[in-house]
Amino acid sequence: MSKSTISTFELFQMFPDAESARVYFEAKRWPDGATCPACGEGKRIYAHAANKIGFYRCNACMTDFTVRTGTIFERSKVPLHKWIYAMYLLVTSRKGISSLQLSKQIGVTQKTAWFMLQRLREACGSDPTKLGGVVEVDETYVGGKEANKHDHKKLKAGRGAVGKTAVIGMREKGGRTHARVIPDASAKSIHRAVHSTIEAGSTLHTDEHGGYIGLEGLFFSHERINHSKGEFVRGDVTTNNIESVWAVMKRGLNGVYHHASPKHLHRYVDEFTFRLNEGDVKRHTMLRVESLFTAAVGKRLTYKELIA
User: Fold this and answer.
1) How far apart are CA 191 and CA 170, in angstroms?
2) Residue 105 carries which DSSP code?
3) How far apart are CA 243 and CA 249, in angstroms?
4) Which of 193, 196, 231, 254 would suit a FRET pair with 128, their CA atoms being 20 to 30 Å apart?
5) What's the pLDDT score for residue 159?
6) CA 248, CA 277: separation in Å to the nearest integer?
7) CA distances in angstroms from 223 to 131, 177, 187, 190, listed in the order given
8) All domains of the chain in start order, with CATH
């Protein structure tokens, strides 16, 4: 087995119980000792009695907290070592893991597993880094085909993208990937996504879609591939890399999740892009898990918010 990979058996040996997982999370979140998530105080922190291991009080603002506070794990009754296993599966499964499979793996209900995965996907979002250099940009549509729907669910508004959700993806050559759900594939929506994600001065590689017209000039250089004329590569100009992202994502959505509603699709897109960016098999498995834990700090998703 690769030195950068650990097996599930090794993971269980590392985290046999909730206490070992708590110690691990505290060391990663607070390498210099517990810090109050409410006011940032790091000195006037006191541990509760021995029968409440892992519970702390900040004497500066009188806040009680644990390592879960201010993270996606907050108020979850699922033991932390089960959370670690769920994180391990999410970052190592190339096409994702279903809530049904996770529920069987860690011994929780399917509903709980679904909520856990949605919380983890929430942590995968909001990558602040900007892309630069040569960036491939492409749009796709996600959703069921009209022909496969029951008659009462058909929109009967035409062909193509009818009833589907638009997603735009941007992949830096040799670098990171960003993708997001957009209202539509109009020039306004595409330009807004590109300008907020890609640094000025970069070179864009796109197909001939009309929504990309006008991106060249003051902010970007722009090269286009004409798919309608059978052109897919011209020198180093191509959109093959970002299109490969769609191939993996759709195999996961169709083969593992089967369906993602427009309401929750943005979290699934965040999951796939996070795994592309942080899940490189050359990185040690625990570094990938640590990246997800770091992203989970400062995020919160309640069940009420999720189903609203």
Assistant:
1) 12
2) H
3) 10
4) 254
5) 46
6) 14
7) 17, 19, 16, 16
8) 8-126+282-307 (no CATH), 134-278 (3.30.420.10)
